[in-house]
Design a protein that fits this description.
A: alpha+beta, four-stranded antiparallel beta sheet, 13 strands, about 20% helix, B: alpha/beta, TIM Barrel, ten-stranded mixed beta sheet, two-stranded antiparallel sheet, 14 helices, 12 strands, globular
Chain lengths: ~260, ~425
């Protein structure tokens, strides 16, 4: 099965990253099932020139079509995370990170929930399953309703994101859900998509330390991948804050958040 | 916004605290290079000097070919002869302009393409003629690519102030600061900087801000901190001499420049390592010193407060960048030669009179039309000339960025509560 045109991969404007896509990207032959879970097959290979052309768009991004963009955060912010990680909260770090991303005009929700997930090395996924300590796989229901808009590698060695290069509207068409009365949650879309197209190629994107990926609007089907790691995986994700969730608002200009302020 | 006086804006106590802080920093010698745009007020009898800054071009040659360079003769490998150096310092000290401490900046080419021995002799010439013992500080503005052990020894022996031109991390620096073959120079510059640091030699950095740089205040801050650079100055990419277009000539530059400055100053003041930022310090001086509009003056608009001398001994005043430029209107900007012409002869020249008249007309127009005047004093003549074709002009791109935007940002920071410390960890 071949990749279909989906959202493009690029570098987020106003961020300094060296994409080096040929070394960064791998593609495989789709999913394999472990019980009810969907995990990527291990047959990763470099992309062909045609696949690279299909996926990568180095031109400055326009409003459309949707893109997934690489970004990088300053070393001082990564260091600040580790400095505050042992403390009971990390509001200041989260506030400073969001302030940095907003300066770069990265599209972020007005209210953000920031979460840091620590995962074991050597795993084909990092999304949690229903039982404590279990993996959920690519189609696992998300604990939060809002899709992840940014994922950032806070660790000191590379990590990987595995994803499907198709945005939710494209998936709706492919799984024949266009006529459904209510939009399907992303996890349900993912389940139906993998049922229909288990051999659809997945992309694996390497994120070096301090690098992140800004997902297209509406989110994407993705999971972590830590098989090449020796140290625990530490990935920060940002999503829109839902009602009742502690969140970091857009800080008023000229003010800083105090440690006691709310954060997700 | 700045039509109100500082006192009207309710900033009096903030300004008093600022004045105390600036005085403390000055005592500590941490404000080197931060010259207020407005240097004082004058009565009706504005005269010549005193000399504040002597810019000497030991050679027009530069081993780099930066894309925004304004020096027209940077391919020429001439050098100022010993006799010219001697005549230069004789002229300076005989003129009576050197009444108070002043700085000699060796620049207008890459000064370090000449060896330290050259400057040892040059400094000796200055000492020989400085019979009154006026304090003189020697400063080299360099691209740092040629710094070696001998230079470091020389800097230490002679207490030379060193300024390094570096535009931040390689991805910014190498877009503009290139060799004649177009290759980046960041690696070589960093070798020089690290040698200075290894030898314990204090220096400041000057970074040219281009359109590209305005998106990267965090990356610039992190670069300075990681390279041990504690004092920073920003020059905007100006339209000067043969550099006829600036990447900053865009409609959205003003807001982006303000945003950049505010963000950078947030980091410089609230980050784990505080940085001295020349532009902030100089504008703070201007705010502290601001009076009414009537008598404001600046070094660049005061005859012989700044004196520039090229490698042949040709002398000019006002903006140093004028010296190498031609002019149909004035027939050039050279007022004479240090070997042959006295200050009196230069001061009486019709050329100076014509230049001065137009500069003063431009300053007067600024005084009448610009709300920022008391903090600026009428702009930089070279920018007016190169951007508009006339000294008698008012607002320029340089004004909008390096004066107006800067003042707005600094005043805004004085008005608001001091920010809490930021995430303060440093990379290991």
């Amino acid at each position: 099965m071949e990749l279909e045109p989906g959202f493009a991969l690029g570098a987020a404007p106003r961020f300094h990253v060296r994409p080096a896509w040929a070394e960064r990207l791998r593609v495989n032959g789709g999913i394999e099932r472990v019980g009810a879970r969907c995990h990527p097959r291990p047959d990763w290979r470099p992309l062909t020139p045609g696949e690279m052309t299909l996926l990568v768009d180095e031109a400055p991004p326009a409003a459309d079509p949707p893109r997934a963009d690489l970004l990088a955060i300053p070393a001082r912010l990564q260091a600040a995370w580790w400095d505050q990680a042992g403390q009971s909260s990390y509001e200041r770090f989260a506030g400073d990170l969001l302030e940095f991303l907003r300066f770069k005009d990265l599209s972020l929700p007005a209210m953000c929930e920031v979460e840091v997930a620590v995962s074991r090395p050597g795993q084909v996924g990092t999304r949690p399953g229903p039982e404590i300590g279990s993996l959920g796989g690519l189609a696992a229901p998300a604990a939060a309703s809002a899709p992840v808009v940014v994922a950032i590698n806070l660790g000191d060695e590379p990590t990987h994101i595995v994803l499907v290069n198709l945005s939710p509207p494209a998936l709706v068409g492919l799984v024949g859900a266009a006529g459904d009365a209510a939009p399907l949650p992303l996890a349900d879309l993912a389940g139906r998509f993998f049922e229909a197209r288990p051999a659809y190629p997945l992309l694996r994107i390497r994120l070096d330390p301090r690098e992140g990926l800004a997902f297209p609007a509406g989110g994407a089907i993705f999971d972590g991948w830590t098989c090449d790691k020796r140290e625990p995986d530490v990935v920060l994700s940002i999503r829109s804050a839902t009602a009742g969730t502690p969140s970091v608002a857009d800080p008023p200009q000229g003010n800083r958040r105090d440690p006691g302020d709310a954060v997700g | 916004m700045v039509g109100q006086s500082v006192a009207q804006r309710g900033l009096a106590s903030g300004v008093e605290q600022l004045a105390e802080r600036l005085a403390q920093l000055e005592q500590l010698g941490q404000l080197a290079g931060a010259t207020p745009p407005v240097v004082g007020t004058s009565g009706a009898g504005l005269d010549l000097g005193p000399l504040d800054l002597l810019v000497v071009q030991p050679t027009p040659f530069c081993n780099l070919d930066c894309r925004y360079c304004y020096l027209p003769d940077r391919h020429r490998s001439d050098r100022m002869a010993g006799a010219t150096l001697d005549a230069l310092f004789r002229w300076v000290f005989d003129s009576g302009l050197a009444q108070t401490p002043f700085t000699v900046v060796w620049h207008a080419g890459e000064p370090m393409v000449l060896r330290p021995e050259y400057y040892r002799d040059a400094f000796a010439a200055a000492d020989r003629h400085n019979r009154g013992g006026v304090p003189v500080t020697h400063s080299l503005q360099t691209n740092a690519t040629l710094i070696d052990r001998a230079w470091c020894d020389f800097f230490k022996t002679h207490a030379v102030q060193v300024g390094v031109s570096v535009d931040g991390p390689a991805f910014l620096h190498d877009r503009y600061r290139v060799t004649r073959r177009g290759a980046g120079t960041h690696d070589r510059v960093m070798r020089g900087i690290r040698r200075l640091r290894g030898e314990g030699i204090a220096f400041h950095a000057i970074t040219v801000l281009t359109q590209d740089a305005l998106d990267y205040p965090d990356e610039l801050y992190e670069f300075y901190v990681s390279e041990g650079i504690e004092r920073v100055g920003f020059n905007v990419e100006e339209i000067e001499g043969p550099h006829r277009e600036s990447s900053l000539e865009r409609a959205d530059t003003g807001p982006r420049f303000r945003r950049f400055l505010a963000r950078f100053l947030d980091l410089a003041e609230g980050g784990a390592v505080p940085l001295q930022v020349r532009e902030r310090d100089s504008m703070q001086w201007a705010i502290v010193a601001a009076g009414d509009d009537a008598g404001v003056r600046t070094h660049e608009t005061t005859p012989f407060a700044i004196v520039s001398v090229d490698w042949q001994g040709n002398l000019g005043t006002f903006s140093p960048e004028l010296l190498g430029l031609g002019s149909d209107r004035y027939g050039g900007f050279t007022l004479g030669n240090v070997a042959t012409d006295s200050l009196a002869a230069m001061a009486a020249s019709p050329r100076l009179a014509a230049i001065r008249r137009d500069i003063e007309e431009g300053v007067e127009r600024c005084r009448r039309s610009c709300a920022y005047f008391r903090f600026c004093g009428g702009g930089a003549p070279v920018n007016k000339l190169c951007e508009t074709g006339s000294f008698a002009a008012t607002e320029t791109m340089f004004c909008r960025l390096n004066r107006q935007a800067l003042l707005d940002v600094v005043l805004d920071r004085l008005e608001r509560p001091r920010p809490a410390p930021r995430s303060a960890a440093l990379p290991a």
